[in-house]
Amino acid sequence: MNRLKKLYCRAFQTVFKIALPFLPYRNPKIIGQADQLSELFVKKKCTRVLIVTDPGIAKLGLTRDLERTLTENGIFYVVYDKTDANPTTANVEEALELYHAEFCEAIIGFGGGSSMDCAKAVGARAAKPKQSLAKMKGILRVHGRLPLLIAVPTTAGTGSETTLACVIVDAKTRHKYVINDFCLIPRYAVLDPNVTLSLPPFVTATTGMDALTHAVEAYIGNTTTRGTRKQSEQAVKLIFENLDEAYTNGKNVKARRNMLHAFYYVGCAFTKSYVGYVHAVAHSLGGQYNVPHGLANAVLLPVVLEEYGSCVYGKLARLAVVAGVADENATEEAAAKAFIQAIKDMKKRFGIGDTIPEIWKEDIPKMAHYADKEANPLYPVPVLMDAKELERFYYKVLQK
User: Fold this and answer.
1) pTM for this one?
2) pLDDT at 115 over 80
3) Radius of gyration of the chain from Cα atoms?
4) Residue 77, SS3 per DSSP
5) Looking at CB atoms within 10 Å, which of 79, 156, 270, 297 has the fewest?
6) DSSP string covering 2-34
7) 326 vs 322: CA distance, rounded Å
8) Which residues 6+ apart lie within 8 Å of 317 measured at CB?
9) Mean per-residue pLDDT over the chain, rounded
10) Which distant-in-sequence residues (6+ apart) come within 8 Å of 71 by Cβ?
11) Alpha helix stretches (DSSP H) within the chain
């Protein structure tokens, strides 16, 4: 990256860091069980609800208990269950049409980050009916009060239940972009481990590593605070202590609950400290090929960390101690490398490979361009890279 662009990026990031204490961040109120939502709707005098989910969640029947309790309490609901793995503008418009047709007053995003992001985007379009999603991309361009928005995470991966962001794919161009605004933070987050018990092991693994990616990128960036570092450390500790158990014994409620709380912590952290190039590259892969976001993050995380090199050794060494994979007396380099190796070992245990088979060489410059536009100047990464430099990550995970 040329010097002028570097100066611009760092200046932009510094301004945001200085402004952090003055921005209207808030954490969603936590609800412990999905069946408690009926009480909330009665209290809010809300009688018609749109549930946004995906085909996999619908097939597993994870919304049935919620649907039953809504019916028992006289609350009308309608379900949109066609959300893609990477939600598109077409998904949003279909769900929005259903929202208006059924005169809904509240929106529940039920599922992984895709469902929650779709629900957020539906809320944004409901609040600003004359504004397209494309015109909302970027920072603070929604400026509206959304309908009552509730997130019910089932994967403990994306942290969308706590963040001000939603990620959407343009259905025509396949360009994947981020919309950031404080009004997108859900009012309530339901951290109910019972809705995660039926998740398949591989989904549990990839979404758990998605959570780890968020935690690490929030931690190693240049706009961390004492609070966000503590939240990231809490998340990393919980992930290393619980993800293997949740993967091998999906019915372990304690492990599932701890994973939900892990990502609640890191969701709060990266809302303020942001993410980095792992996410930017993963988003471009999701937009171009519909690669599941958690899987892309898992493959890319150790590759990007190794590329950053010695400038992240100090922070990774602290995470290594927190995760229990290195001793406090180890050198920073040794501990940092032990942490990266622990991530690689975790991937291997979960059957996650080192490549993204979908990548075509001719698509790499375009995807790198999109990653550059997403990340720079917003993401406070340890090492700045332009589109040409970002191309190396695609080649590193290209199937030979």
Assistant:
1) 0.85
2) yes
3) 20
4) strand
5) 79
6) -HHHHHHHHHHHHHHHHHGGGS---PPEEES-G
7) 8
8) 326, 330, 331, 332, 333, 335, 336, 339
9) 93
10) 77
11) 3-19, 37-44, 55-60, 64-72, 89-101, 113-127, 201-220, 226-248, 253-273, 277-289, 293-308, 313-323, 332-349, 364-375, 387-396
Integer Cα distance of 89 and 135 in angstroms: 12
Distances (CA, A) of 186 to 116, 146, 182, 379: 9, 9, 9, 22
Q: How far apart are CA 40 and CA 37, in angstroms?
A: 5
Torsions phi, psi of 158, nearest 5?
Answer: -90, -25
> What number of other Cβ atoms are within 10 A of residue 308's Cβ?
19
* Six-digit token string for 80: 């949109």
CB atoms near residue 90 (< 10 Å): 14
C-alpha 282: how far from chain center: 11
pLDDT at 243: 96
Hey, what amino acid is at 219? Y
Bridge-partner residues for 189, per DSSP?
A: 30, 151
What pLDDT does residue 15 have?
93
Mean pLDDT of 79-104: 95
3-state secondary structure of 353: coil
Helix/strand/coil for 140: coil
The CA distances from residue 166 to 66, 71, 132, 180, 397, in Å, are 24, 30, 14, 7, 26
Round to the nearest angstrom and report the end-to-end CA distance of the chain.
28
The separation between CA 362 and the C-alpha centre of its own chain, rounded to angstroms, equals: 28
3-state secondary structure of 188: strand
Instruction: Look at residue 157 and tell me whether its pLDDT is greater than 60.
Output: no
Those residues whose C-beta lies under 8 Å from the C-beta of residue 27, and which sit 6 or more positions away, are 162, 185, 268
95 within 8 A of 124, measured Cβ to Cβ: no
What pLDDT sits at residue 164? 87
**Three-state secondary structure call for residue 244:** helix
Residues 6 or more apart whose CB falls under 8 angstroms from that of 322 comprise: 233, 236, 237
CA 121 to chain centre: 14
Question: Is residue 211 a contact partner of residue 201, using CB atoms and an 8 Å limit?
Answer: no
pLDDT score recorded for residue 158: 59
Q: pLDDT tens, 128-155?
A: 999 999 999 988 899 888 999 999 988 7
Alpha helices in 221-276 (DSSP H): 226-248, 253-273
